[in-house]
Amino acid sequence: MSRDLYLVCYDISNDDTLQQVRQYLQGWRVQGQKSAMECWFTVSELQAAKDYLYSLIDHSTDRLLFVRLDPRQPVMHIGKHRDFDQHMGSFFIH
Question: Which 8-state DSSP code applies to residue 8?
Fold first, then answer.
């Protein structure tokens, strides 16, 4: 079962929901920032994550974005980073 790399971005208005979203995504997170995480998902994991997160958020105020990344793209960092694992990668989309 192969995994694909996704950038998961979120804008959550409720602090409790925001914490739940962050904690849930930690299981797949390899890199990221406060509201954008790079996560590896299988097809079924991705669907489960979408379903679960969809059930948490307030659809009138919150936003979720899943973007599939191409792991063959060169790595480019702008600014400070920490705990970067060259094999896992971090991506700047331009």
Answer: E
